[in-house]
Fold these 4 entries.
Entry 1:
Amino acid sequence: MSLTLRYFCYGCLLSSVTWSSSCCSTSTWAPPTAAPLSNQPHRGPERGGGRRAAAAPANQDAELSPEMVFQRDFVCSQDIFNEQDQQAADSGIPQTRLLTCSFQSFSPSLPSASVIICFFNEALSALLRTVHSVLDRTPELLLHEIILVDDHSELDDLKGALEQFVSSELKVKLVRNDKREGLIRGRMIGAKHATGDVLVFLDSHCEVNVLWLQPLLSLVSQDRRTVVCPVIDIISADTLKYSASPIVRGGFNWGLHFRWDPVPPSELGPDSSKPIRSPTMAGGLFAMDRSYFNELGQYDPGMDIWGGENLELSFRIWMCGGQLLIAPCSRVGHIFRKRRPYGSPGGTDTMAHNSLRLAHVWMDEYKLRRKLQCRSFKWFLQNIYPEMSSTALNHKNPPGLMNRNVRRPTVLQRGRLRNLGSGRCLVAQGRPTQKGGAVVLRSCDPQDQEQEWALDEEGQLVLSGLLCLDVSEVRTSDPPRLMKCHGSGGSQQWNLSKSSRLYQVSVGQCLSMSEPMGPKGYVSMAICDQSEAQQWCLES
Ligand code: UD2
Ligand code: MN
């Protein structure tokens, strides 16, 4: 049986990749060739120096590191690793850029960057790893300064030890907030201290990859109203391992929660290094002309602590004459934590508060919008995020009604969904017809009809021909559940990759057996890795 991935293969020589999905045969991984990242802050080897790593020939699974294989799962077999990229090979960080990126050249007179990093109670090692990676992988001329904004942290080593480090680095400045401001006002405080041409915001637990800054600065310098995000690679919160992310773009759902969407074919050109227009940004990592940031009104200062500011700024950029792009050749790793290690001072739900402000300001007539002569939200939906308008249509017309008029998606594969880590199969915890029911791992039984899943061309995983495997886009750490199939992708769209991972497009995570596996056989969503706990075989 063969499976075609329509969304994650683009911009390269092929318009789609078709491969055999006999998943069980690909469960052994080639040993990693990239050096594992340590927990400790480090300086990478100097650019241009160091040992040249052996370049991996493309198209040979056996010689690709897991990171590369992972990337290829989502991108394209030809477009994987550039043998000529000496700097990349010497960097000690897995190379996640596409081959075409090395043909890019940049103007010798790019603007300078002020890198702003806000942190609250961040692990010193994670913060230093972020700062060192910027110092090591950014050309001297382009780095104007790094501004660290301490949002009134309580941890001891963020005091003396950090000050000692800052005093030894000329370009690093430290600003301390007198009280907890939250990341939104924190970033504005950082911006106020900045004097470089372009503001580049990073979270305090990142690692920038080689040549990360040039593609961002280059696009901003071509048009000061262009805001640019890198591709956010994944650093595992458990192992700190760095792996490539698929190229997806930002969207949102009607709960005003950010989500990752596949890049629509209309956005894909023949050149995979071309920037991609993105309706929204994830929030943490982006470059923006400093004067444009001020002109556009910075952030909404009424937003507290965390959440919602990313959509607010994205709407404002698009509706008020700017554009938001993702530069596929700029890669920055970010630790996606399972839980945020902090709350808000008053214990309130700042995300809900911020989202309400966002709705009031941008989804209705409002004076701020008139002052900036911005377009309407309707314009934004019609022109920048038409995919959302079609979801809105689905909401108005119950999916059941809609589905009666449309053809059912073709089933690509059927069978039991066996988890390689446990050897067990995914089944409904209760009745497979129960909406909202959980799924668990039980002994496989080829005779049992209730263990049969169908994977269709829309990426839906349908159990016993009835309900779809669905994740919550609001509480992304919740385990998946069985829901009525809605036919609009997102929370019900799964990709079974060649390496047997079940990648959930909307939350950007993989289906995993919960470890340690108790008698109940629970499963969960987790940051994708190469473990057997995340490998699944759809076997008939
Ligand atoms: C994502 C964004 C984050 C922000 C957030 C929504 C990425 C990779 N991350 O969540 O930047 O847009 O969505 O608001 O796109 N911090 C403070 N003070 C606080 C709370 C946080 O300084 O009161 C710092 C924190 O230490 C970190 C940054 O703000 O450096 C972002 O916080 P996060 O990493 O917890 O957010 P994240 O990645 O879950
Ligand atoms: Mn973060």
Entry 2:
Amino acid sequence: APAAVIAIDGPSGSGKGTLCQKLAKQLAWHLLDSGALYRLTGLAAHRRGIALDNELAVAELAANLDVRFVPGEEGQPTRVLLDGDDVSAVLRTEETGSLASQVAVLAEVRAALLGRQRDFAQAPGLVADGRDMGTVVFPNAPLKIFLTASAEARAERRFKQLKDKGESVTLAALLEDIQARDKRDSERELAPLKPADDAIQLDSTALGIDEVFEQVLALAKKRL
Ligand code: C5P
């Protein structure tokens, strides 16, 4: 029998990542961070000097990514190795996010990553984090959530995160970035960011991530 999947989609900064980590931990289920696969593909292309619009070459890279996720010990975050190099820190930067969204528009790249993503659906279950989990990758998921928040709230969260890491950015520049990325992700032809017809929409602007977590956990217990 296929493993149960909770598909969680939404724009960056909606709190999706934190929500998915908390859910996977609470349920002791697997976690798929699909954005990381697009980030790794963009990063690998960049490092090898492959043009980001060279669809076949980038798709070939995506299909053959040499990546390992090494679980952190004692509450440390998972480390990500690309070709044996620890890329955990560079993976999360704005620059890598931009590389990711450029390779994410390529049909062959999305196709190359499809099977890899579906392989994560293992017993006892999977929490899948992305943009097209409910629409394309796991269309039969019994629980689909579409998590949003205002662009301003998302920019402020991101601003705090980056400031804590000592990166120098301005709130205005972040807001502009977020709006540009939203536009690119939701207007692209392939697997655009949009709620599945049967997704439950939640807004974390006012709710806060802990309340969102409690609501989704209650839904999961009721449905799965
Ligand atoms: O979620 P994250 O910020 O890591 O995603 C980086 C980029 O990868 C997104 O802006 C989007 O362009 C792309 N992406 C995607 N489909 C997914 C996950 C991410 O196109 N399922």
Entry 3:
Amino acid sequence: KKFNVAVVGATGAVGQELLKILAERNFPVKSLKPLATQRSAGKQIPFGGNTYTVEATTAQAFDGVDIALFAGGSASKEFAIEAATRGAVVVDNSSAFRMDPKVPLVVPEVNPEDVKNHQGIIANPNCSTIQMVVALKPIHDAAKIKRVVVSTYQAVSGAGKEAIDELTEQVKELAEGKEVVPKVFPYQIAFNLIPHIDVFADMDYTKEEWKMVNETKKIMHDDSIQVTATTVRVPVYRSHSESVNIETERKITAEEAKKVLASAPGIIVLDDPREKKYPMPLFTSDRDEVFVGRIREDNSIENGLNMWVVADQLRKGAATNAVQIAELLIKYNCL
Ligand code: 2RA
């Protein structure tokens, strides 16, 4: 069976990746409807050997659509419910519905069965949460996680195409001795680190940090897991990196952790530090796996573990995870 698929936000960084992943994974697309803002309407999009014209996103555009993949941003708030009302199953990459109890929040390697409870909309978690819970899941199953302390090193791609271009521009301008004028970020991002992603909220945490706290509990179905996060923007193009410290109920050694991680779905363990083998954005971009390395016991507490988790933000962090959710909809026959 093939499906009528709409990609909302088709011309942005995540939208472009969604189209690429749909084609790469041979998703059963009967017809494709690339949607974007009026400004992008008319652009030609090659897909699966055909060319499609980008249309402006309107309510009527969702008539006859079976699956609507929303790349994120304001279109989700404006059209996701409308699309579902018109019969499409929505996979939404924005944060609009993630904490809605009626909306499953899904990482296929962690809680695939949750897609069965959808009522028209399924939410794709935040990119920094996705890669972390893929790595947490096998440890949680083996030793029950009590607490997570995570610091992130997030690529500029998380802030979209303009942000990717801004990094390139600033490096060039600085090389030419020019002054840089930050546009997407609050400060120059080239050769800098900015501890500020999204807006500041309760307890002076950013919304990005609260997303990691709250989404983790929902995806893992365990409110007892305590999470604290510091999220930082770094001058890297595509992959997010995370330093993850875990405290578990039961003792798990570094060797046991490496074993359970290596046999878990969606994970590649790259961990031979003496041979300089550890995950880095240099090698993880354009890949779908979550790479884990620097696995070692925490020297400061009884049942603690450190690990370094790196993954491509546009792929596993957004587009691949969304298409994998759409594949689950077909597998579980809940379209
Ligand atoms: C970021 N996680 O990295 C946020 C949204 N993609 O900017």
Entry 4:
Amino acid sequence: PLDGPLAGRHVLVTAGPTHEPIDPVRYIANRSSGMQGFAIAAAAARQGARVTLVSGPVHLPTPPGVERIDVESAREMNDAVRAALPADVAVMVAAVADWRPKDFVETKLKKRGSAPPVLVLTENPDILAGIGADPALRPGLLIGFAAETDDVLRYATDKRRRKGADWIVANDVSFGADGGSVMGGAENTVHIVTADGVEHLPTLPKDQVADAIVERIALALR
Ligand code: C5P
């Protein structure tokens, strides 16, 4: 499949949540299903790109023609992403945990009738910002995602500058009245924030959102 508008291009995609271990049997996670990132990897491969997909723990099949690297924690994802570079485009869709437990406990925490343990957290590396700030690593087109529950466009515009990204794809992940959400759901409503302004896409199935983003990537690289 080395035909198509992205033939000869290397596209790096991150997807899914990260798991941040507490002890051998417990971790901190989030609600990301990985669906949007996997759909983008699949769409890029269909357009002829060589695709590396760095994925957190998800229950999804590897899309055809995609090289998948599985990781668990944010730090593992950071290492895998850096090892997979250089790329022409990086699309950072993963819902990377901002924090991890400061100390990993080597043996299972026990109740022992005493007070519950206090979890002390520490900050994870920001994978997107780290690459955005490093000219030796930065792909020509660097795309981040912003999952917000409020003031979506203001935070996304700010995030674009702060993380050194070219585009931020913003979506509203606030919960609906039925408890349903973008995270884990089949559809997404995104706004593409670039240096030139904002493009609003209609609510679409995630694979169609992916096609729209990949189409714009192909145009930008032309
Ligand atoms: O700051 P926030 O988590 O909202 O930023 C979201 C964007 O940054 C996404 O593209 C996500 O993949 C990326 N990110 C990252 N490393 C982190 C946190 C977020 O690459 N530690």
